[in-house]
Amino acid sequence: MKTQLLIQNKKDYLLFLLIIILTSLFLTAPLASAKTSAKKGNHASPKSIIQQTLPALTGELGTFSTTGQGQLPKPLYEHTTVTATTGTTTYIYVLGGFTQTSQTNQTFTDVYKATIDSSGNIGSFSSLNQGQLPKALRLHTTVTVNTGGTNYIYVLGGRDIYGRSSEVYKATINSSGDIGAFSTTNQGQLPQPLNAHATVIANIGGINYIYVLGGNNGVPQTTVYKATIDVTGDIGPFSTSGQGQLPHNLMSHSTAVMNIGGINYIYVLGGVGTNSTDGSLYESTAVYKAAIDSSGNIGAFSTVNQGQLPQIQNWHSIASLNDSGNNFIYILGGYPNKDETYRTIVDTSGNAGIFSTTTLLPKPLYGHTSVIAITGTSAYLYVLGGNSLNTVQSAVYKAQIN
């Protein structure tokens, strides 16, 4: 079944999500659904920047601009974006994604790499020498980790041409920043097929743990899975044992991990779910926080003392900065036509403060990705791709964090 989506307004969007939830129990043909951390996290998957190089910052953003930035080779949304540093060079990667016109819908296997220079500018994106995804994916998550001096990249879940995926792929990033072949060998697989979920990594006592939160498997989920990444970069089995579960079923939410005063906290923001009483759609403004203990287990999630989102947020992007006392979380864009960028300051108790508006995006975006990179004593926030007023974008924007 070929699905063409031209979403015109919020009423159409809510009907669209309800159709997905009601029919996905029966259909496996490609459907578009709300993006994680997207989305979306992504849709991204969000990556906290934990280094010790920055001066004290206010967290306010400069102007977003495409000047000096390599642009995406094609229009994309529902893709993922991550960074990895090898030696003194930071690379940015864009994986998979979806494009949509009045004539065609297409999901991609492409993996692109670009270099971020000392001025924070992104070079040209290229798929040359990059391992490509084993299958076309969208609404997946991607994270990177360094263990034993080697960088690894992981792709989890998502939607392919047949439906939702439970597969977890791993690849090695070499000393030149190139991604090797992706494989599921020796990787714990997701206990259920998921898209529009969120994935984060936390290092606790020198051990890397990977967490998968919520997502869509016909209906939004409350599950929180944890697995351990060993010294060879392999992911162990995923389990909900000992993990605080989400207070509400969610998909198209976003997640961040912050280390505050030596304690790791995990935050879940926004998203879409269903009400338990009648199955109607629930769009969230909630911000949940939980502590991660010394064994890597997530405690109970709560909104207590957490600044809540000023408006419902889903299909947005998230980026977080956790460096030298600069602890900020950014929420950018979202469905249907949002151009707002919100910033919160995380205090010394790990509580998210009031969300305030900072620099607007150049245009409304949803299904885009955002990452932060540090070069020298400066930090930059990047926004890549997305859908703006039913037109898929290839633009890459950069803004300095002041």
TrEMBL record:
<dbReference type="InterPro" id="IPR051746">
    <property type="entry name" value="Kelch_domain_containing_8"/>
</dbReference>
<keyword id="KW-0677">Repeat</keyword>
<dbReference type="InterPro" id="IPR015915">
    <property type="entry name" value="Kelch-typ_b-propeller"/>
</dbReference>
<keyword id="KW-0880">Kelch repeat</keyword>
<protein>
    <submittedName>
        <fullName>Uncharacterized protein</fullName>
    </submittedName>
</protein>
<dbReference type="InterPro" id="IPR011043">
    <property type="entry name" value="Gal_Oxase/kelch_b-propeller"/>
</dbReference>
